[in-house]
Write a structure and sequence with these properties.
Distance between the termini: 30 Å
Number of domains: 2
Strand order of the largest sheet: 5-4-3-2-6-1-7-8
CATH superfamily of the largest domain: Molybdopterin biosynthesis MoaE subunit
Radius of gyration: 21 Å
Structural class: alpha/beta
CATH architecture of the largest domain: Alpha-Beta Complex
Number of strands: 18
Number of helices: 7
Helix content: 25-40%
Strand content: 25-35%
Shape: globular
CATH topology of the largest domain: Aldehyde Oxidoreductase, domain 3
Length: 306
């Protein structure tokens, strides 16, 4: 699911409404908005896009995210529920969402995530946003990837779905400094080509019908999911074996940069498999006092997940 937020000092709801209408021509759209006024009055004023091309809608109340009027939701909760069901999600009126963002008028987006900044709603071109949105990383969950695997033309021959989920572990031992988050970067073309090659080779196995590999980039907080492997197969032996080989090859062959931020400092983790539950090995530290530290940040080193 591709996600885009609309923020800024301009008429962001009007821009969000136009964007939903345009994306509806591409696929199913979910919307997430902040509720700060009477929704009926907003619709009469033409300021609501609750039912304009939106297949599912989550409205943010004054104190919490709400769905169907009652259940508490966070931003992540709403996106997690939309991901298996929608191809696009548009977020309207949420400050600093950590997703690609269209800024209308003045405003900022976190971590340089501005997809487009336009002076006003009149100068907004939804077609250009659709093209740029297609180049962004999709928002995926384990459920959305399993749903995609089930769409395989060979699903009627499959009797097993095996999955692996890697997550960010806060610490290896009780006395370790707690990890706050990991930040990942990748060589886009090389990483994508390598992951595609791994998938194709694994899908050549007898009884394996679909292999999906997904590794998040950017900031991933402690205890959040970071990498998924999903295998659709005829029987469980080939499903389990392929899941294990899939994560092992992803860790060994896909070039990624990994920076770890703990309560005591920041370092580049060369072979520190902190997110996948494996043993810790080498670290290059920065901003720490003591033996083995550098005075400045090291050059990024590809994390090959050995």
């Amino acid at each position: 699911m591709n996600v885009v937020a609309v923020t800024g000092t301009g008429d962001q709801s009007a821009v969000a409404r136009r964007l939903v209408e345009r994306l509806d021509g591409e696929g199913s759209v979910g919307t997430v908005t902040r509720s700060g006024s009477d929704p009926v009055a907003a619709e009469e004023a033409g300021g609501s896009h609750h039912n304009v091309g939106s297949h599912r809608h989550y409205r943010l109340g004054s104190d919490s995210w709400t769905a169907s009027g009652n259940d508490s939701r966070s931003v992540t909760d709403a996106l997690d529920e939309l991901a298996p069901r929608c191809e696009y999600a548009v977020i309207d009126g949420v400050e600093n969402p950590a997703v690609p963002t269209v800024v209308v008028g003045d405003g900022e987006a976190p971590d340089g995530r501005i997809l487009k900044q336009v002076p006003s709603k009149e100068e907004f071109d939804p077609d250009a946003i659709v093209d740029e949105l297609a180049e962004t990383d999709p928002y995926e969950t384990l459920e959305s990837l399993v749903a995609r695997a089930k769409e395989s033309p060979d699903s009627d021959r499959a009797g097993a779905i095996a999955t692996f989920t890697g997550r960010v572990r806060a610490r290896d031992d009780e006395d370790d400094p707690a990890t706050e988050y990991l930040e990942f970067e990748r060589y886009d073309e090389v990483a994508e080509e390598k992951m595609a090659a791994i998938r194709e080779e694994l899908e050549q196995r007898n009884g394996v019908f679909e292999v999906i590999l997904h590794h998040k980039t950017g900031v991933v907080e402690a205890e959040e999911d970071i990498v998924f492997v999903v295998v659709l197969a005829g029987h469980r032996p080939e499903a389990f074996a392929t899941v294990e080989d899939g994560i092992n090859r992803l860790k060994a062959e896909v070039p990624l940069f990994k920076r770890e931020v703990t309560v005591e400092g920041t370092f580049w983790a060369h072979q520190h498999d902190h997110e996948h539950g494996d043993e810790a090995t080498d670290r290059t530290e920065t901003g720490w006092d003591g033996e083995g530290t550098d005075s400045g940040a090291p050059e990024p080193t590809p994390d090959t997940h050995d």
